[in-house]
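[Meeting: bench + compute handoff]

Bench side (C.D.) handed over the final construct sequence. Compute side (W.E.) agreed to return the predicted structure before the next meeting so the bench team could plan truncations. Sequence as handed over:
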Amino acid sequence: MSGLLLLEDGSRYSGESVGAPGISYGEAVFTTSMTGYQETVTDPSYTGQIICFTAPMVGNYGVGPERCESDRAHASGVLMREARGPQWTRWLAERHIPALSGVDTRSLVLQLRERGAMRAALVTGQAALDEVMAGLSGSPSMARTALVDRVSTPTPFVHARSGRAREAVLDLGCKRSLLGCLARAGAAVTVFPHRVEAAQLVRYDGVVLSNGPGDPAPLLREIETVRALLGQVPVLGICLGHQLLALATGRKTFKLPFGHRGANHPVLARRSGRVLVTSQNHGFAVAADDDPAVSHISLYDGTVEGIELPELEALSYQFHPEAGPGPHDARSSIAAWVDALRPTRRTQALAQAA
């Protein structure tokens, strides 16, 4: 069965349908990761996005439940030059994800780099193109769109019961690999919905603001929660959590032309001079100017990749230290964070009073 990708600028890219039938709308983006296709599609940060893989062959090592970053697929669609292996394409179809193989992904990526990420419709089977374009023009832009409510846990749950530090995770679309990385570093981990009150989180030794999808600017309640935490409990922000920490401290965010998505992004740690090869997935960034709190910068475009606020016991990373998927250059930062969170008399007293 044939399929088609329509971009809001009128561009069209054809392919063969290898996933679920139907029409799907989303923001067309691309990732340069060579592996981790299953992790990518199940990453909540890709909610509302149609993913183009730049790797020429996708699906060649199959699928497995241990590779899922959440309990379901979140991407709106998948575009590939060549889909390999019936396990992968069957997995997509079973999860109702439209997907195309045989797409001229090189041309598409050049278009997105030139014109920027844009709204798109992925069509498989028969459809009236005029109606599809009408639906596309009425679909929401990623800018000013809050998506956290679609991916955050509805109720708190315990991921790891024992550890030398008690961590609370504010779930903005958290990946399983982040929770696993915290637990392996020695943390007891409890995950909370995005609308939790700050008073519940300050009882812990530290709070992690997780990754997640969408524009951070409309998340006014979450920004206020982060602001209430600062100075009361150590805070670590990852990806969307990094952006919320920036907004909570008076900084600004903006939409990147085509975002950073892949597992080969070089980041400079300014204090040590070390270059980290990192995993990234974000379409928004923190505005820098001459901010002395900036601890890490992208060597691709100079955007802010880290913030350190020692007076507030807060720091954040735009990249993904847990690397699911990706290189492990930055994983030690999670272990260092957990090691620094020795239970204080304050948190011990609060825990006893709870």
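W.E. noted at the follow-up: Residues 349-354 have pLDDT under 50 and may be disordered. C.D. will use this when planning the next construct.
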